[in-house]
Amino acid sequence: MSTQTQPTELRGARLALFAVLALAAALRIAGALRKSLVLDEFHTWFHATRPSLQAFFETLEFDNHPPLGFALVAAARVVFGASELALRTPALLFGLVELALLFVLARRLCGPRVALAATALLALSSLHVDFSSQARMYALHSLAASTTLVALLRLLEAPPSRTAQVALALSLATAFHTHYFGGQYVIVYALALGLASALDPSLRPKLARLLAPVGVAALLCAPWALTGFAEQLGHALPPGGDRHSPVELAEAFVHLFFLNVRLGGDGWREAFIAGGGALLLIAARGAWRLLRDPAQRGAGVMYVAGAFGAPLFAWLLALALPRAGFNWHYVLPSALPMALLAAAGARGLLRYLFGGALALAALLTGLNLATPGTEDFRGAVARALELHRPGDALISVEWQPALFPQGQPYDYYAPRLVDAPPQRLPLEHFTLPDPRVLDSAQRVIVVRKSLPPGQHLAQLLEARFVRVQQESFGFDLDVSVWERR
């Protein structure tokens, strides 16, 4: 594959890249503005609003995530404010940087046309759009893993690069402090390096270049590893994802570019799944082309490891160690190498199949942006306030780890929607500490997220009231009205 380009072609590619990045930014800003914060983002909000640095680290010990993602959202809150867009600004920036990184990586490997195709595919990925417009750590998790991949590839080239060594040290440290799933990508890339050096003995002497950055990263990671991480290992908080069936592994691959396929209804849903499958086949063709070329074989092994190997390894590890967890947003870093392989494999008639899949990805991203989101807490709280009458009781309850306080969505949105909103009833352990507070209420308005049936709160309500109304606002999120019997 030739990467030689004429200056005019390169200038045109840069203009096209600017257009793609502008479109990507517009899509992500639209998502950040339109969609309500979801429950996981309120977990970020909790950590980002701790009253002191000491409280920040003390509460993190009871969580199962490292501190960096939360600290960056806390900083964004100080600089930009507490709006949804402000809290999501770090993720927006990290997502755009990753897109630019993909273009640079793909251009050096395959030329500007393939690089633009790959960047456009990742820019239109509904998974990438969603998680680079959320106040969570996944966009940085993906950028850190992608930077690790780029730095490793650069260090296998000649001459050695000091910049790549610094980038590798920082990306490894960032990965550990952002999401522990980043460690699985490090393991997979280390195994891929071993395979690449076995296939190409000329790479073996260059592996020594990795020793210094890995050593520096280990030193940077040691303080948190010996304190907060050690404490987190000691408790039994389960992972956020436990999708362990083979079907869910297949879904994870499709979701790299097609998230929330249900939005298309029965007809388009199958088309979106087919589009995801087509991209996997095209990416496999691109991987085969790289692996057949002796000059690109080492890089090809690394891309295949990131695109196909990391999700498979993570899924198998979760089967053996359930606490490791598995969910499709954990493997978001696989979208970048998969996009590169798919663009590299889109030759001949496969270009038309790639173009069709790209159009389907754009359509699904549009559908995702047209909805209020998977958990519309903003809409749910607005509806609860609309239904509330003087004398009604109001409850906001969310099924989540006990670390996080109840009612955060209501406390965040209610003052932003109305002046002097009604006070919600305080909860402890997902129920009312003093049920007598319901004695004077003729009705109870409940904003409920994922509360399992049979909970004590449900028993209290059912003993005194009858549910007369219920409206859904996303996955397991509803607003209900209870009238006294």
Description of the molecule:
The mean pLDDT is 94. Strand 3 and strand 4 form a beta hairpin. The protein is mostly helical. The radius of gyration is 24 Å and the shape is globular. The protein is 63% helix and 6% strand. It is built from 20 helices and 4 strands. It has a 4-stranded mixed sheet.
SSE layout:
Blueprint (H helix, E strand, L loop, with lengths): L6 H28 L4 H10 L4 H8 L7 H13 L3 H27 L1 H13 L1 H6 L6 H18 L6 H17 L3 H18 L11 H16 L1 H7 L11 H10 L9 H28 L4 H24 L14 H11 L4 H21 L6 H11 L5 E6 L9 H10 L25 E7 L6 H9 E8 L4 E8 L1
Parallel strand pairs: 1-2
Antiparallel strand pairs: 2-4, 3-4
Helix pairs in contact: 1-5, 1-6, 1-17, 2-4, 4-5, 5-6, 5-8, 5-16, 6-16, 8-9, 8-10, 9-11, 10-15, 11-12, 14-15, 14-16, 14-17, 15-16, 18-19
Keywords:
485 residues, mainly alpha, four-stranded mixed β-sheet, 20 helices, 4 strands, 63% helix, globular
Q: How much helical structure, as a percent, in the residues? A: 55-70%
Placed side by side, the strands forming the largest sheet appear as: 1-2-4-3
How would you characterize the largest beta sheet?
4 strands, mixed
Tell how many strands the DSSP assignment holds: 4
Helical stretch tally: 20
CA-atom Rg in angstroms: 24 Å
Shape: globular
Percentage beta strand? 5-15%
What are the segments in which pLDDT stays under 50 over at least 5 consecutive residues? none
SSE class: mainly alpha
CA(first)-CA(last) distance: 75 Å
The whole-number mean of residue pLDDT values reads: 94
Order of helices and strands: HHHHHHHHHHHHHHHHHHEHEHEE
